[in-house]
Each structure stands twice: as structure tokens, then as C-alpha cells.
Amino acid sequence: MRYFRNIVAMLVLTVSPGVAFSQVKPLDAVLSEYKYPYDVHFISLQSQNNDIKMAYMDVKPKNPNGKAIMLLHGKNFNGAYWEHTAKDLSAKGFRVIIPDQIGFGKSSKPQNYQFSFSQLAENTKAILDELKLDKVIVLGHSMGGMVATRFTLLYPEKVQKLILENPIGLEDYKTFAGYQTIDKAYQAELKNTAETYKNYQLKFYYDNKWKDEYQPWLDLIAGWTLHKDYPQVAWDAALTTDMIYNQPVCYEFKNIKTSTLLIIGTRDRTAIGKDRAPKELQPKMGQYQELGKKTQREIAGSKLVELENVGHLPHIEVYPKFFKALYDFIQ
């Protein structure tokens, strides 16, 4: 552990002044000092010989319309970034369930865990079982889109409608990029700083245009890098990167029978392993303006809403356009 502490100390000392680091505060593995926008609940799970806790928010409307929607976060995020979406959905009468997946946000960070989308889907179902919710609308963003896809395939009877917002996994990254061992992925994660996270997001999410509203979601993951717990977080991040690379869902879109909406920001270029792919293949990865149309053709009867010149986070970058597309589909 001394080795890990030294790494974290070096990360703190080598922070570049080019990012708004005054806002970045050290955050422990389960974000215990960070307040989520709604009350956080926990469900205890015994999974793979681990006693773990899964965090979730349960936002209940004042005037229920009888429908519930579950919002699934992406890899570099947690449930907190759904605050605005949850507020407006609740105002429309929807009950909103927002889990933090195991390995993310305020949920446990097990160090001996075989991450799979099937396992994450089962964990997620446990929350619905706890709440006695038989049927929900499911919205997944980024990696959450892969979780939502697997959840829908495993438990179609529970999914009223499916919405995929700039999901990753619309292509098989193994066909472009070479394999990276978990050990190498872990070492790469340990090198992350606020600056490296921001540079990645600028390149793939925001087309080199930074707005103040992006900062809180950078601060959350950057804060981890400044805490002694970061090796725990980095290890799970390496495991989940391996999961995304090795467990594509794109071949099974044809099996989805649930009413589905794709909300796609066409400027997005996110792709796992792009930096490891041959240079001639890199420009072909993460072409969301093509992948959205391709996926719509594969999911029978699905609807596609393309948001031109929008990146990886429509619900942050162009919230009114995102919410209109979402509400028109689920009302």
C-alpha cells in the first residue's frame, strides 16, 4: 500500500495549472463526503463471495402517473449527473430510480469481482425487486446503455420502454483495437489526473469546447485521483474497461423486442481502445452519426433522434433537446 500512497502523492504534486483544479477536492472510494441531489439508499448484496452495498436514489413524484423510469449512468459518471433529468421527470409524475452500479459512485468497490453486464443487470434487478417494481422504463447513457441493453435482453418482461442515449458498444471494439491486459489498464488508470480526464473528454465528448456545466462531472472523477483510496477505484475502472472491451452487445440488438428510442449526439467519437487501434482504423471508430442509424436498423421498430453537432452527453450539453426527445417517447 505504500507504493499506492506514493503514486497518489505524486499525482497530487504533478497536477497541471491548466485545469480548474481549485474545484477538485479529494474524494474517497464511496464519495462519502459528496452530497447527491436526492436521498441515497443502499441495498446489501452478497455477490461472488463479497458483501457489498449498491447505492441508489428513489425520487418519488408528488402527483404519480403510475410509471417508473430507471436511469443508468456511464463509466466516467455516477447517478448524480441525472439530477436535472430526474427533477423534470418527477414533475411529470414519473417515479425515478437512479442506481450507482457496483464499482461506481457511492456503491462498493470490490477488489475481487468478475464484472459482467449480466452481473450488473442482476444487481440492478435486485433494486427493483427491493422496491417491488414489476415494470420500468429504462434509460441508459454511455456504458449505461450497454447495461440497459443486457438488462432488457435478460428481463424483457420488466422493461416497458428502452432509451439508449449515446451508448457505447454500438460497435465491437475488439475488431479495431488490440487487447490490453487488466494489469496494464490498471497502470494506465493510476496515471489519471484532472487534466488527463479533461483532455479525454474535450477530445471525445465536447470537441475541444469546455463549458462550466461540465466541470462538476469532471470534479467527481478527478477528486478520486487525489485520495488514498484511488487504487481501489482504479482497479475497478480497469476491470470495467475490460468488461466493455470483451463483452460486446452490438450483435444482440436484433434480439430486442422492446419499444426503443435512440438519442444520438452525432459529434460523439467515443470508442474504447481507440488509442491502441492502428492509426488507419482510429478515424473509423466511434462514428456516431453512422452507428446510430446502423443500430436503429438492427432494433426492429426503433426510433432514432439525432442531435446534430452534439457530443457524448446530450442530457448535459443540450438538455432541452434531450428531454423533449425523451418525454415525447415516454409520455
TrEMBL record:
Any one Gene Ontology molecular-function term assigned to this protein's record: hydrolase activity
Ranges where the AB hydrolase-1 domain occurs: 68-211
Secretion signal span: 1-20
Keywords tagged on the record: Hydrolase, Signal
Superkingdom of source: Bacteria
Pfam families in the cross-refs: Abhydrolase_1
Name this protein carries in UniProt: Alpha/beta hydrolase
Organism in which the protein naturally occurs: Chryseobacterium rhizosphaerae
